[in-house]
Amino acid sequence: MNVTLYKQMMKVNMKSFMNYSFGSAFYILLMLWLYPGLAKNTKAIDELVNSMPEGVGRAFGLNGFGSAEAFISGEYYGLILVLILAIVCVQLSTQLMAKLVDQGSMAYILSTPTTRGKVACTQAAVLTTGLFLIIAITTIAGLVGSAWFLGSAYAFDTIKFIQMNIAAFLLFFAVGGISFLVSSLSNDEKKALSISGLITFGFFSLDLLGKFSEKIEWMRNISIFSLYQPGEIVNGNAGLAASSIILTVIGLVSFGLAILLFQKRDLPL
């Protein structure tokens, strides 16, 4: 890894990382602030959730409002955080590789005493660091918010909350790896952005649609988003170890292939 390049790229992207991180932190604090008021009417709200078609509840991770972690698993981890991190992965992976090639900046970087492998490895580290920062700040905000807004009046399972954050990081480590692989093979920024977005949101859509009906549930089998189950984590039914290993392997293989293929490909002059 090229330490100088890493520091420069982190400096360039830090404002974006912090914007996403504090936006995520604000939203989860808002959820925890709202929960005590909603919990007073939990029976009526749970009845409303249960009255919805089963597919709707499964698709959007609606687990009721019986606990704070069940509430945020559906209201935040099931959809909003997924969309935020999907956008981060697609945009940042494109900016770190394809954009530099498209604009000619990659040739300038490679003219310095470094190698293609080190450059690609460094950019992969920047993407991974950005995802880690967003998840870490979200986790810290959730823990602080639970102590502040919930106190001892409402139960909050810290272990399950941390597990949800680990699962989210590993999912987008895999998604980021795939997007980074696409970007590493592209000369055109817009093309890389389009392909990465199509793959990422295509996987997301397949998983979402597959939850609506048992007849099309097979669609989830071809989506890595099916390995991310915040609602099941809350209920204690998630196969967290197996899904974590699979997502980690997907991420490592994707980043590894991206670095290897970037070393071997022809770059435009």
User: Number of DSSP strands?
Assistant: 0
Relative strand content: under 5%
Q: Tell me roughly what share of residues is in helical segments.
A: over 70%
**How big is the Rg?**
20 Å
Shape: globular
Write up this protein.
This protein is mainly alpha-helical and 269 residues long. The chain has one domain. The chain is 78% helix and 0% strand. It is built from eleven helices and no strands. Helix 7 runs antiparallel to helix 8 (158-184). The longest helix is centred in the N-terminal third of the chain and has 37 residues, at 3-39. It starts with a helix and ends in a 5-residue tail after the last helix. The relative contact order is 0.15.
Q: Notable features of this structure?
A:
269 residues; mainly alpha; 11 helices; 78% helix
Provide the fold topology.
Elements: H1 3-39, H2 42-51, H3 54-59, H4 68-77, H5 80-103, H6 105-110, H7 116-150, H8 158-184, H9 189-212, H10 230-235, H11 240-264
Helix pairs in contact: 1-4, 1-7, 5-7, 5-8, 5-9, 7-8, 7-11, 8-9, 8-11
Summarize the structure.
The protein has one domain.
